[in-house]
Amino acid sequence: MAHRLAETAEILKEFSVLFFAMRRVAALPWTAVEEELQNSRSPGFISELLAQTCLHPLCQKFPPSVRYRRLFLSELIKRQEAAGCDPLDELYDALAEVVGAEESSESFRSYRLPCGAFVSLLENAALISVGTTGLVTWEAALYLAEWALDHPQLFAGRTVLELGSGVGMSGISICRSCSPRRFVFSDCHPAVLQKLRQNVRLNGLGSDSRPAVRVDQLDWTTATGEELRAIGADAVVAADVVFDPDLTGSLVQLLSKLLQRPSTEAQPLVLICSTIRNPQTYGGFKLQLEKAGLGHEVMSEPVRHVFPYDRVTPIELLKVFR
Predict the structure, then answer these.
(1) CB within 10 Å: which end of the chain, N or C, has fewer?
(2) 117-135, pLDDT tens digit by residue?
């Protein structure tokens, strides 16, 4: 009996994690739901599943898209009816609510941290919106967050600067789990900065929080060494910033300035995480690092799979140093 209850709890947890991250509905573990329904033939499991997804307080506060919830509930009803279970009013009520709701290009994705808390992010459904790709969470940001969760000691007590923060996944995860002293999010696009500031606030972070947090506009092409030194970063992170050959030169120059310290000072830890979609662009970035006199080391140790995302395209984490 205890084993069966543990299995059910694990199924409910998995559905919760996948639902709030808005993973593809068809890819959810529906076979496990069918087995539960066949074993019980009662609506109790469906009620529990709803309580962990569409009726969870997190869904009321930071809801996944209307379309996603509609697809999820429709699939759940189909599985329930196929199993011959008694109709459940709350299930049909939940579907009626989203059928009548207005669609929006914005919605929330929420990612469960190992501690059980969620990082919730307001994103734009369009891949490219208002001229930028920075309004969604990319795979490298999730990988960097996972790596940081495995190495919290490298960020504890430090001032961390994040380049190209986007909607804030990596940085918020580090703030919530790795105990930095101060964290500076940065980006350059006005729409991204607006969304980033909103997400930082939604996750309970700010200038008066622990760690102290701020969001800066940082243009790689104009940032001066004096401006960067004033930040006082002793750790620098970035995810999915190596995608445009026209920008890699500016990124390398910025990293060179960040690593330009007197010999009496310790160099900052610099970590650049990239999804390698175009090997030529990524290889060009490494060549530019070498030409600028910067070394790099691939951090190849495996990470725990904490967040659900596609891991087909290779992701590489580089430590950059002078």
Answers:
(1) N
(2) 999 999 987 644 344 445 6
